Amino acid sequence: MSVRLVSKEFKKQSKSDKAFDIINHIFLILILIVVLYPLWFIVIASFSSPNEVAAGNVLFWPKGFNVKGYAEIFKYEKIWIGYKNSIIYTFVGTAINLIATIPAAFAFSRKKDLVGSKFLMLLFTITMFFGGGLVPTYLLIQNLGLYDTMWALVLPGAVSVYNLIVARTFFDQSIPYELWEAATVDGCDYAKYFFRIVIPISKPIIAVMLLIYAVGHWNSYFNALIYIIDSAKQPLQVILREVLIQSQNVTNMTSTSMDTLEAQRQLSEMIKYGVIIVSSLPVLVMYPFVQKHFVKGMMIGAVKG
Amino acid sequence: MKKKSVALVLAAIMAAGAVTGCGGSGGAAKEEAAAVEVSKDGYPVVEETVTIKALGYGAPGCGEWEDYEVFKELEEKCNLDVQWTTISGDGADEKLNLMLASSKELPHAVFSGLSTTQIVTYAEKGLIRPIEDLIDGGYAPNLKKILDERPDIRKAITMPDGHIYAVPSINSDEEPVMTTTLNINKEWCDTLGVDVNSIKTLEDFENLLERFVTEDPNGNGEADEIGFTFEPVDPYHVWNGDADFSAMWGVFTDWDPIMVKDGEIICSIVQPEYKEYLTWFRDMYTSGRIDKEVFTHDHNMYMAKIDSGNVGAYLTNGPVTSAQVEYVTIAPLEGPAGAQWGSQDFSIDKGRGLITTANPYPEATMRFIDSFYEPLTSMKLSYGDFLEEAGDGKYQVRTAQSGEKSNAPEAYVGKNLSKDVVDTYLVKTEEQIAADERKALYAPYLMEPLPLMNYTPEEADELSSLSADIKKIAGEQKAKWCTGQGDIDAEWDSYVESLNKVGLEKYMEIQNAAYDRFNAS
Amino acid sequence: MRKGRDGGVAAAAVQTNTAIRQKSVWERMKKCWQLYVFLIPALLSLIIFSYAPMYGIILAFKDYNPLDGIWGSEWVGLEHFIRFFNSPYFVQLLKNTLIISIYGLIVGFPIPILLALGLNYVRNLKFKKTVQTVTYAPYFISTVVLVGILNIVFSDKGFINQFITMTGHESILFMGIEKYWRHIYVWSGVWQSMGWSAIIYIAALAGVSPELHEAAIIDGASKLQRIRYIDLPAIMPTIVITLILNSGAIMSVGFEKAFLMQNPLNTGVSEIISTYIYKVGLISSEYGYSTAVGLFNSVVNCILLLTVNQVAKKMGQSSIW
Question: Does the model's ipTM exceed the 0.90 cut?
Answer without folding.
Answer: no
